[in-house]
Every structure is written in C-alpha cells, then in structure tokens.
Amino acid sequence: MSALQKTLHPDEKIKAGKLGSSLSKIGVGIAVIFLGLSIILTLMGSPSGGHESKWARFFHAYVIGWSYIFSISVGMLWIVMLHHLVRGRWVTAVRRVCEAMAGAFPVIFIAGLGFVLPLVFGYKDLYYWAHPDAHNHELNHHLLHKLGWLSPNFFFVRYVIYGAAFSFLAWYFQKKSRQQDESGDPKISETLRIASAPAMILYSIVTCMAAFDILMSMAPKWYSTIYGVNFWGSACVGAFAALALILLGIQRTGRLTHSVNAEHFHDIGKWMFAFTFFWAYTAFSQFMLQWYGNMPEETHWYKYRMFGEWQWVSIAMIVGFWAFPFVFLLSRWTKRIMPSLVFFAVWQLVFHWLDLYWNVMPSYQWQVAFHDGARIVAGPLSGNTAFHHVAFSPVDVTVWLGLIGVFLIGLGRNLVGNLIPVKDPTLPLSLAHEVQ
Amino acid sequence: MSAATTEGHHEEAGKAREAFRTVTRDVSWVAEAPKPHKAWLAALGIALIMLGIGAVSIYVLVTTGIGVWGNSNTVGWAWDITNFVWWIGIGHAGTLISAVLYLTRQTWRVSINRAAEAMTIFAVMCALLFPLLHTGRPWFAWWMFPHPNDMGMWPQFRSPLMWDVFAVSTYATTSILFWYMGLVPDLATFRDRFAAKGDKLRAIIYGVLSLGWRGSARNWHRYERAYLILAGLATPLVFSVHSVVSFDFATSQLPGWHTTIFPPYFVAGAIFSGFAMVLTLMLPLRHLFNLKHIITESHIEAMCKIILATGMMVGLAYGTEFFIAWYSGNLFEKFAFINRAFGPFWWAYFAMIGCNVLIPQAFWLKSIRRSPVIIFILCIFVNIGMWFERFVIIATSLARSFLPSSWSYYTPTRWDVGLFVGTLGLFFTLFLLFFRYVPVIAMSEVKGAMPEAHAGGAHGPTPTVTAGGTK
Amino acid sequence: MATSTTDTTLDPHEPPIATGDGELYGILAEYDTPGELIEAARKVRDAGYSEFDCFSPFPVHGIDEAMGIKRTILPLIVFGGGFTGLVGGVFLQWWMNAYNWPWNISGKPSWSIPANVPIAFEATILFSVFAAFFGMWILNKLPQVWHPFFRSDRFARVTDDAFVLGIESRDRRFDAVATRKLLQDAGAIAVEDVYLEGDPARKTMPKWIVAFIVASTAFTLIPFAIAAKARNSHSNQPHVHLFPDMDFQPKFKSDTAMDLFADGRANRGDVPGTVARGQLKGDDEFYRGLAGGDGGGWITGFPKQLEISDATMKRGQNRYNIYCSACHGYDGRGNGVVPQRVAASGGAWQARNLVEAGGPTVLMPNGQLYNTISNGYNTMMGYAAQIPHADRWAIVLYVRALQRSQNASREDIPPDQQGSIR
Hints:
The complex is a heterotrimer. Chain A has helices spanning 19-44, 56-85, 92-102, 105-120, 152-183, 187-215, 227-252, 262-293, 296-306, 310-329, 333-336, 338-360, 394-414, 427-431; strands at residues 366-371, 374-380. Chain A is mainly α. The relative contact order of chain A is 0.20. By secondary structure, chain B is mainly α. Chain B has one domain: Formate dehydrogenase/DMSO reductase fold, CATH 1.20.1630. In chain B, 70% of the residues lie in helices and 0% in strands. Chain B is built from 15 helices and no strands. Chain B has helices spanning 7-32, 38-64, 79-103, 113-134, 160-197, 200-209, 217-250, 262-288, 297-328, 331-342, 346-358, 366-369, 372-399, 414-437, 443-448. In chain B, helix 4 (113-134) crosses helix 5. Residues 1-5 and 457-471 of chain B have low confidence and may be disordered. Chain A binds chain C through residues 1-2, 284, 287-288, 291-292, 330, and chain C through 61-62, 79, 114-115, 117.
C-alpha cells in the first residue's frame, strides 16, 4: 500500500462548465419522450391483472422505476458518508460526483409524488392496503391491525419525512464539501466526519423503513426483517455501477481524465463486486430461512416466485445478478479494463432493475372474487401459481427509462463548479491511489 | 543512488533503521525477558484456577450426564448454546481485523491483528467445547463428519447443526492458517534473535516453525498475494460463520427465533462483542508490557468507534424485530417479543438493552474514548450485554413457546457456571501463553506500515499521514 | 573460519563475518533504505542477472517491478482449489443424502439445494484456503530450513532492520569481482561473500535429525496401522470399553445371584399368600385348558370366554402366521422357513405336521393343544410369554380349521361352490 501523494495534474479540466445543464437537458428529453410514450401506451391499453384501472400497470412500473433511481442515490449517499466516517482516501477524487448523484434527491422526491399523490387522492389499484376491500374482515383479518400504519395519508407523511431526511443529508454533505473548495479549511473535513456518524444512523433507519413501506408493502401480508438490508445491498450494486458509467461519461467530455484512473475504477469495481456478494448473501438468507421454516404466512411470497412463470425470472436473477458477474468480477482485469467494467456496470444496472421488478411485479396480479354479485378484491394473487403470469408490458421499460431521465435532471443540476474537491486535504492521497 | 551517499542521508537512514529495530526490540522483549512479569504470573495463576474449575465441571458432566446442567425439557438449549454463540462471536473480531480491515486498507489494524487473531482461535476452541459436551458422548463427535462406517449412514446435510459443524471447523482451520501465515516472518525474527543470543533450543523451535523464512522479495510477493487472497476468503467466511450459527435458530419456527434479519444481525453482534473482548485483553497488556507506542490511543479510539457503530446496528436490529413482530400480525411472534421485554426474563432483556445499546453511547465522547480505564469497564459491560443477548434469545423463546402447559423457567446449576468459568480460564490461559511465547504484534506488518518503510529511492517525499490516521 | 571471509564492509564499525570455507555461493550486499534496495535491484536486473533476490524485514513496495517479478499464478491455484471444493461439497451432499442414503427430513426433498448451499460454500472456502496456504508454500519452496545465506550474521538482521541484496554464483553473468563492484556502485553500505561449507561431513544432515524424522514418521503411522489391522481381522474378544457408553449399568438382571437377600436371588417373587390383581387365573378351562373340578382331563371344546366367530378365526390366523408358521408352515405341514433353512444347510429336521390326517395333533384334545402352545412340547418352547390367553385359544381355533381344510373332501365345500372345483 502506498501512502504517497500526488498533486492535481496541471492540464486537468475540473470545472463542470456546461456539463450539468446539458445533462439536465438530455434528462428532460429522455423523461418527456419515455414518460410520454408510457402514458400513450397506457391510454391505448386496457386494464389487466384484476385491476379496474388501466393505469395500474403504469403505476407499478413507476414504483419500480422510481425505486431504481432512488436506490442509486441511496447507495451514493452511503459511500459519501462512509468516506467521511472512516477517513477514506481513494474516494476523494470521485467524491464530488458521488455527492452530485446523491444530490439528485430533491428531484427524485418530487418525481415520487407521481405515485404517492394519486394514493392520497384515492387511487386504489397500486397498493392493496389502499384498496377499500383491504378492510374486509373476512378476507384480511390479519391485515386490519396495520391498516392505520399503511394508510395513504400516513404513508404520505412518512414519504415526506424520508424525502426530507435524504434530501437534507445529500444537500448538507455536498454544501459543506463545496464550502471547502472555497475556503480550503481542513476543519470542514473534521465537521463532516463528526456529522457523518449521526447521519449514518438516520440514514439506516430511513432506508430500512422506506424499503418496508414502498416495496415490501406491495404484498402487505408478507414480512421479512432483512428486507431493508437486502434492498440496500441491491441499491449499492446499482449505485457503484452507475458511478462507474457516469465517471466514464464525464471523462468522455475531457474532464477528470488525469485524476480518475484505472485504480479508482478498480476500487469501484471491487465495491460493486462486494455488494453483489452482499446482495446475494441477504437475498439467500431471506429466501433460505423462509423456505426452511415453511410457514404459509411467509412462503406465499416465494411461492409466486419459485413456481409458475416467475421461476424463470428468479433463475435469471441468481445467474445474472449474482453468479455470472461474481465469477468474472473476481478477476482483477475485469475491473481494470474499461470496456469490461462498462459491460459489467451496464449488466448490473439492468439486473438491479430486474431485482426491483422481481420484488414488485409478482404482486401486480390481483385476486378478484364475486360475493353475492359484488366484486371483491382479495389482494395479490393467492392460489394456483399456474394462473400467475409475468405479463411483461412495454410500459415497464418505458417508465423506467423515463425515470432515468428524471435522475439525469437531478444529477445535472448538481454538476456545477468543481468536479473534484480541490482543497480536500486527502485529495493528494486519493490522486496517488494504487490498488495492491 | 550512487555509492557517494551523503552524510545527512546516511544519518536519516540510520534513524529509520533504528525505528525498525525499536519495533523488533519492543515486541520481542516480552518473549525474551528471562523471567515473566509478576502480573503475568498472577494472571496465569488465576486463569489456571478457573481452568481447573472447568476441568472438574467437565469431569462431573461427562461421568454423570447432561442432567447436571439446568437444562430441562422445555429449555433444552440454555447456557451451553449461549456460551457457544458468545464465544464464536468474540472470535469474529479477530478475523474482521485481520481480513476486512486489511481489504479496506485500515492500516491501524497492524498493531492488534496478531493478538486479535490469536483471540479468535482461542475463542473458537472455547466455543467448540459446548456443542461437543452437549452431545452427551463427546467421544462420538467424529460421527458428525462424513466417513464410511459400519452403520451405512451419512450425516444429514439438511440440518443447520450440520452446517455449523462445517462452518465452525472451516472457520477454525482458516483462522489457524491465516494466523500462522502472518506469524511466519515474525517467527523468523525470533529465530534469528534467539540464535544470536545463543539460545539454541528456542532457535531451533522457532526455526522449524518459521519454515526457513528469509524475507526474500520473491517470497514476499507470493506471500502478500496469499495474504490478500486469504483475507478475501476470510471475509465472506466470517459472514457465513455467524450467519450459519444464526440459522441454528432462524430455520426453526419458534417465535423470536424465526426471523430473516438474524444472519446480518448476528454478524454485527459478533463483531461488537469481539472488539469489546479485544480491548478487554489489550488494554491491560498494553499497559503492562509497554506497548503504548505501538498500540496507540488512536487505534483504541478506532476500536471504540467500531464498537459504537456495531452497537447501533444491533440496536437497529432489535428495533426492526419489534416493529416486524407487530407488523406481521403473527400473534405468537408478538407475544414472544412482549414476553421477552416484560415476561419472567425481563431483567435479562433490560441487561441486554442497557449493555448493548445504552452503555456504548458513552463512546460518542472523545474524552471517554481516550481514557483506558473507562473503556475497559465499558467493554466488560458490552461483553456481559452480548452474553445476555444470546441468553435472552434462547431462553425466553424456549421457556414460553407454543404450549403454555410446558412453560417453565430456567435456572442454571453450579456446573453450568463452572464450565463457563472453565472456558474463560482456558481462554485466558492460552492467551497469556501466547503473549509470552509468540510475537504478540505483527512486527513485519508494523514495519511495513511505518513511514520509514517508504524512505529513500525515487519514490518522492516522505508522506505526512502515518498509520493510524492523522491526529 | 573467519580467515576465509572476504569482507568489504564500508562501515568500519561492522565486524567481519565468518561464512564457511567451501566454494563461493554468492554475494550479499546491504543497503541503507528500502528505496535504495529498489534502485540496486533495478540495476542488477538491468545488468542482466536473474539468480538474485532481495531480502527485507517487510515487503518493500515497488520492488516487484524493479526486480521484474512476474505476477504469481497463486490466484489461479486458489481458483482451482475453490472450484474443487465447490464441486466436491455439492457432490458429497448429493451422493450421501440424495443418492446413497435418501432419508426424509421434515418433508424436504432429499436433494434440497437451498439447504446444501451453506456446506457447499464452506467447502469452497476451505479448499481455497488450503490452496492459498499450501500453494504459497510450494511456490516459495517452503519449508526450506537451511540456506547458505544463513551463514551470514548480517543476513540474520534481515528479519530485523537490514535490506539486503544477494546474487548467487550460479548466475551465468556472475563474476566475483564485477558483481561485487556492481553492488558497491549501487550504493551498498556493506558487501560480503558467502561460502558453502567446505567440510563434506558437515554438508549432510546430522544423524539425530534423521533419526528424529524416521521415528516421528513411524510413530504417526501407528494409528493407521492399528486401523488397518482392525479392518482386516476378526476377533472374538469383546471390544475395548474406552468409554463405558452404558455398557455396564448398576443393575441386576433376572435370575441372577445377589447377596442382598437371604435366598441369594435377584428375583423377588410375590409376597407369600397374596395374589396380584387380575393374576388369580382361577378359571382352569380358559387359563389351562383343563376341565374344572377334581382331576378332569383336557377339555375338548372351547372355554366359554372364546367367541367362535369369523373375527376370532381371523385373529387366530394372524397370530398363527406370526408365531407358528416359521416352523410349522403356513399350511401346518411342518415345512416352514426354519426347516427349509435346516435342509438348505444340510441338516434334517422337520417340525410336527399339524394337519396330518389321524396324526397326533389332529387327535389331541383342544385343551392339550392349548397347553402345548402355552408350555411347549419337546423342542418347542412355550409361548405363554408372547401370546395372551385369548390369542392362544384363537390359534387353537384356527389350527382346527387348518386341519379340516387340509384334509377336506369334496363334501366339505359349500354346495353352491362345488361347481367351481375341477
């Protein structure tokens, strides 16, 4: 390990210049095109999966796409805070980009209102707990006690709290870091280090609760204590993959070409690899314990993922999100040769989306019963898995791409000024960073 | 660099060499001192007495039967498994320090990794005693390993207890190999020092153990690769071991045991207790053997912070469990958690919360992180708290499970206590022997992490940031 | 030996060093700092040497590149080890639990992949660790307890604070003078020659070490030898009770001697003059097959407690097939599996034919038949301990039916079924 130092290369372009605004414009374009396309597709379509509203698929896809961009910012906020907490070195050179990605939170928060506000205004075909039939005592006697917690209004309140907490943390760490660019005061590093400890606690609680509320409650009768940790692991895979791609994209514009080198990408690749493993570890723990315990109140969730059409998606997840990238990322060179790293970053970003899809979409299909001529919705399908379908829709992808556009808007807004924390005292170490 | 070295340069190099020699000398004197330290002898005496108590307890247990323990039909697992999990957990800090902190380049680990790894091995040995003795006929333990036999039977691999056998034995093997590999260069140092002193016997013993290590660059190259790979292997291993231990509980359907957060939550708890034990051991020894300049205050502070962080993780897991117990709507689950906090074992529950969540909060204060005596006391509380955590999980859930007619209360017998005291004695005995006869600090790694290690040549200026971070 | 040393120490404070008196093995040069060692290594490599090495108390960063050390193949070895562990771990569990000895555990499939993951994982890690650890040994040629450089006292300081470069004389570019100069010019603070041992007797390993290795190898083989012997021989002796395993229990078996009681027997009979509840057995007909009253012989009918019914007949058949057929055969002709096995092993023994027309059993009164079942006859043991009274009577009933069926005439068949007999 080398503790040597380097100074910023004299020819290095570190100013964002117009990068941010053009990225935002690209983001607006992508968002308008794909979200518009999604709306058109939805209007042309018809209701499916036992839903009365044709918008149900759109909103389910929206939750997936939103969770996707949310998770990338969640992961990036974590690496920024961890870097301060442990006095990290190598991250410094890329930290401003991490901060910018985490700083997309306010925009993501506003985008999320796209599915939260309809709930508040009575949209009932997204979360079953928001459906009036959820209060049916005969069907849902073990759901009733939590319908106060899972009620649209309280959900909205929590959503605002989560959004405010994340936005504040992202804003605070970015603001202080930029202040250091101006003043060069080494005390700011110390302030951030101290602040990162309580921030981490807030962050952990909010991440877990957000995962419980937004994703786990899709199947409101199901529960798993590890769910938040599992979501976080997947989020970090996506976040590091996205970081690699965004950094390479920035380098294509001629910026940061000297400061960020194969050593940094190697470490980003290592983290992506580590979280691939961590995700697999938590996902396996969750699955194995529920499979082994074999209690109906838990296994119904896996039943619809292990059998029927969804089993193929599950197998694709094991192979694609874990086994294949795991074996190849073990090697040093797959992380140091850029085309290979790009391939695996794109690969993991796609599978991270599939992970969220796999978590949400099996709950899309609802069970409808008729009782004395009245239509009663019994929530996510239960019964024969042969009637359970993947029912892939183009909207699933277009909404996702549209929301990636939203993320780029949020990111572009933050790519201003210096792209590197020029006066951070650990920058010389980060620039000279070498992986063993 | 030519032969025409300047006087100033030579002087600087001499100082650097002096610094390396100081490390060697300050670490070696513990083993080289002709007579052991009085405090060391006293501690060894106490440890041996405790070990004796353990030996008697084992004798009584084996010759009489498991009935001498407080276990009953209702609480079939009690102190034995509590102690097993507790010891295994303590072991985890060693691997964490030697592997995970190595991979994440936390150079401060070098001053304590050797002792922490030794602690791991001894803790795993203590841990293994409990399931072994709980089988009732420990001499049949080899039946757990797959081997062709007259009965035509094979082990049952779908059982979490079988996973434990494999996980813990793999962990013990890996820890020993990892520890030994780290020791080889330092044993070579001992070999050369004892040879220079003319102590032929010890020179031969250390010589054989050091495999003829010469510090060759070609050897170092492969050695470093192997070390990195072992660190990379030990990291998922350390996660898997305590996860598998948690599977023993979580694969069952018992309320309070069957919950998916158990694997990471057990791992966090293990690291938490392990670091507390590292500090419990190292604080007095560092004081007694004048190692304060090698195990510095900032190293201790870093460990305090890890204790604080993992304590918070454990606290978060307690909270999550409670929340989901309510959220699930599972009445048994809900009862189990209310019973845990307000049932007959409430005192254990609040001891756990107090020691694991509340007491470590003191580490927010820098002044506390800098006062060894307070840290020592707090760490003992953490160890007690983590013992209670396992006891709470095991005993409360078993004592009040599905069938109220079999509910009971658990009280340990003197043999439960005796065996536990005995493992403490075994642990301290081994650790004290280690401290006296084995290089207690990874000298080669400390030297490699010193600023002088990069001195000279065309490698630029001497860096300002040293091992252990800036002050 | 000091005379044979060529010491070119630049530092006058360093004492001359003895390094053997044989041929020149190589030259050692000490450098001041790790950085200078790197520079020297680069020069030596650039000069075309290949049989050289650097020695330092810790791994010097950057020296691999300077010396031109290729990246080790160790990761590949470890990958191979890990793969072996994975495949082995999976195969082990499949073969043992799903193929060789499938066994239902809580309804889980015998080939339960989720439950096999932990052990497959641990096996992968274990084999990888072995590959890494022993692979490092092998690639580094360890253990190598002796090396000529160890002769140098300066070299002993490598494990403390010295940075040393050594060139071996077998290098094709080696030239005692030129090489020495090269090392000196690279900034060495001391240069020293190392000679091999001159005395041929000292080149061999001391005898006591050889003896120790042979003895310890032999000693470790003893358990294997014992195991091999045990597997390939038979013994009539009881096994060694290393652990008691409840083989010896503080209890007395029935009909054994015991000093505690006056009669010296372990058995305790009933207290004289008492009868346990339900044990009076006063009904001679039912319990003993004897006609009541004074000296009455065997009864020929059945006791009144026995209900003659289809159910009793079935019960009797069931009990007969369990207890009697082994010798007497299912058909009662005395040709059960036991006589068959006797015949197969070359003996000649036939159980009594129960159904032989006019034979002793057919003529036997019911009471005597019952008594035979209870108390035995000739070599036949009594079955009183195994078969309750009512079941014995059911067997008697069935045997009577068997006798009749085995000696039946056409008239015995119900008229409506006679047509089916050809």
